[in-house]
Amino acid sequence: GLPRYNPVRIDCAAAWLSAVGPLGSLANILWENLAVDPVTRDIYLMTGGGPTSFVLWRLHWDGRSADAEKIETVANLSVGAAEPRGMCADSSGTIYIVFDGNDNWRRIVSVAAGGVVDYDFFNFFSYYGSKSEEPGRWGDIAYRGGRLYVIDRRNDRLVVISRTGEW
Q: Has residue 130 got a pLDDT over 70?
């Protein structure tokens, strides 16, 4: 079987990478995109080799032992010319990922606990009337008390969005 996963260190020995999944491996972890479910304590991370395709993973971990017992693919994300810039989890198990890229891929994507992907949870480009100079350049995201806090690196501001997608 697979080795146990230590949340502090993930060993990526070539002998078992193929067992992780055919669409990605833990060899390409995007470390700036990591989230912890505040209820289950599961750890979410993202892998990918570049724009257009990324994999969201869940490490089942109770927060007490040194090792996670199971790792699974939550969702395969097909995006335009964009990179994930931040990720967080809310108390319902939904994961929010900020993508920043070309105009029509400046958005927040949500992934429900069951793996259902909402690519249009919040589309910054559409919100600004499809004007490329307005939507900002998006960075990290955090969740607290029913609100998402997103950093706009272009306009030096913090944007607050409700969990239902209201600006």
A: no
Pairing of strands 29-36, 43-50: antiparallel
Cβ neighbour number for residue 20 with a 10 Å cutoff: 19
DSSP codes joined into one string, 33-80: EEEE-TTT--EEEEEEEETTEEEEEEEE--SSSSSB-EEEEEEEEE-S
Q: What is the pTM of this model?
A: 0.79
Return d(Cα 6, Cα 139) in angstroms, integer. 28
Structure tokens at 148: 């998402």
Please give the Cα distance from 129 to 39 (Å, whole number).
37
Burial class (CB in 10 A: 0-12, 13-18, 19+), 53: middle
d(CA 19, CA 16): 5
pLDDT in tens, 92-122: 999 999 988 876 788 899 999 889 999 989 8
